[in-house]
Structures are given as structure tokens and as C-alpha cells.
Please model this.
Amino acid sequence: MQQGPESVTIVVAFIAGLISFLSPCVLPLIPSYLSYITGITFSDLTQEALPKKIRFLTAAHSLLFICGFTAVFVILGLSFTFLSGFLSQHQALIKKIGGIIVVLFGLNIAGFLNLGFLQKERKLEIKSKPMGYLGSFLVGAVFSLGWTPCVGPALSSILILGSTTATVAQGAILLLSYSLGLGIPFFISSLLINNFLSYFKRIKRYLRIISVISGLFIVAIGVMIFTDYFGTLSGYLGSWLSSAGK
Model:
């Protein structure tokens, strides 16, 4: 990817995080995740007026859960980008292969293609959560490693996109943006759990449409990686900003 403004790819990574949050095997389970990491029963979480203590525990454990999967995602981003540095002489080939893989992931999300290995859940379960706040961080880390069908295609797309960036730091920023896209709506849902349940009932019927739109978005990312459109777009933006600053 050429040097230049990275705002476009950062926004793309954030949207990919939102796609992961909206996936059919993450969104419906938000209340279960919250109950598990907080140790608070579902009936207590869904009280009409939550006590301050429950609100505090929900916010604290949710943030640590988010920090857990964010740490793993960023480390993965650093690793992919660092590895691609050793293969810089093959960067063009990496983009072509990576772009094709991302397109396949997108078609799988949209339901136009059935990649069996992405449908098999690889959950690394913690049957009894470690006590305390550290436990929520560890559960977040396990979530990031284990729920392949839920976050795998979108996450892999951003990892491949990150591997085409110029520096390791840029790759880490992309994965941080992805994590925020997944984490921010999770945190908001944890604070407004009753509202979440109400809205989920409304959007549940549209999950199939959301999956198709999400898949097509991932396909678009794959096409842009394959054609190096992100690099071209960064060049255009750089020229435009330079001209605007004169």
C-alpha cells in the first residue's frame, strides 16, 4: 500500500468490526456474554432500573472483556504485518492471493458460498470463569481466538488488509479500529441491555439481509486489495490534501 492518508482503511476496519458484532452468532448472544463475564443473572441484568453497583460491574467487566479481545487482535495485526515485511519482494502476489481469499470470505458471509471449514465452531471454552476482573480480560482473549465462524471472515479480511500496509504500526492501528467496531456497540449494549433486547427483537428478522450486505462489503474489500485500489485511493487523497493545503 502506498504511503498516504490511512483514514479510508481505518474506517473500513471499523465497519468490519461492526459486521462481526452483527453476525448471527454474536449479536443474539450478547446477553449471555454479559451474564457470564459479570456473574450477574439475566433477570438481574434486565431489571427496569439497574442498581448503581450492577451498572458499575457491567461496565467494568465489559471494558475488560473488550480489552482482552482487542489485545489479541492487535497482536495478530502486528504479527501479520511484521511477517509481510519479510516477504516484501512478493507484495504484489500477496495482494492478489489475499484479495481472492477475502472475496471468498465475503461470499461465505453473504451465503452465496459454503466454506465448510469456516462453519465449524472452534470455541475455546472456559467452563468456569476465573474470578475477578482478570477473568473478564481472559474470557475476551479466549473469545477472540475461539469464535472462528463469528469473527473469522471479517477479522481475516482486515488482517490481510493490514499485511499490505507499509508499517507494522499501521497494521496495528487497523486491528485496533476493527476492535473498536466490535467493542463499542458491545459496550453500549451492556449499558443499555433492556434497550438492546427491545431493538434486537426488531432487527432479528433482518439478520439474513444484514449478512448479505456484510458479505458484499467484505467482497468489495477483497476486490480493492486485489486491485491495490486502497493504495491508489491513498495517493489521490494525498494529492488532494496537498493541493487543498496550498
